[in-house]
């Protein structure tokens, strides 16, 4: 039983951290990607711009000729992935509703109980449900 | 939260995790996704009277009256210690609330944990702290601005609902290591799990035959 729980925990945590099979990157990976190729430009040109205000992006655009194209590519990729993951996390329970009713009757929502139930029932989970849980970063 | 506590409790790294504020000098910074989740999901009980407003007022009163705030010995500190929490280092530009790019990934890690179904129904207080370099009043204001900046980034960039987050600046009033007030270790961000957003849902109904 302990080993089973350990495996489940490892799976969960790996899912949170993102994985090669996920269609979206984790939020941490997205943040790291922006920092990697935009960080030097942000520190150089946008020292008074804060994340979450739109200032960083506007500032980078204003210095477009001095900022590497890789920064804009990575910034766009990170933002797109974040948006996709947020959408998947918001839609997951609706998309999985039929599976939840079928496989998780009686399960008390909260504390990831429903997610754990779906992962336990992986063999009967519809592809659309599994796919959105992968995009949400909750299923490896 | 008992289930995740069991899950994570089985991990070897659990041994490396300090109990919440086990002692100022030994408090650890949460560096990994697992540590963030572990710290924030350890809640066994909440303290409804411990609100962002109470904490802000407490720090403000101490600064206004120029009284030392012995938070490490206070009743409120003891109550805070009981909450599920993490301490993270976020790098800011000197004397400002600008989050440096090297900390974007840390913000993302916090968002990963908060968005996960384990924590999805919980609310948090983001607390900013400084060391004693500079004046108390400036530090109080700066730490509030920094906590605000973190909340703003979590909400706007990473899509955390603003209903789940409150920002509190405690300035230099809650030093992690009171014996070394100017030590940079005191500059830190704490996140406390303070309650639930709404009642937990009802059990999934059994499918009609």
Automatic annotation (TrEMBL), chain A:
Signal peptide: 1-22
Annotated keywords: Signal
Name the UniProt record assigns to this protein: Cysteine rich repeat protein
Species: Ancylobacter polymorphus
UniProtKB/TrEMBL annotation, chain B:
OmpA-like domain span: 79-197
Annotated signal peptide: 1-24
Protein name (Swiss-Prot/TrEMBL): Outer membrane protein OmpA-like peptidoglycan-associated protein
Membrane among keywords: yes
Keyword Membrane part of the UniProt annotation: yes
Superkingdom, taxonomy of origin: Bacteria
InterPro entries, sorted: Bact_OuterMem_StrucFunc, OMP_bac, OmpA-like, OMPA-like_CS, OmpA-like_sf
PANTHER family found in the cross-reference section: LIPOPROTEIN YIAD-RELATED, STATOR ELEMENT OF FLAGELLAR MOTOR COMPLEX
Origin species: Ancylobacter polymorphus
Stretches that traverse the bilayer: none
Primary subcellular site in the record, as a coarse category: membrane
Entries under CDD domains matching the protein: OmpA_C-like
Subcellular location as annotated: Cell outer membrane
Record keywords: Cell outer membrane, Membrane, Signal
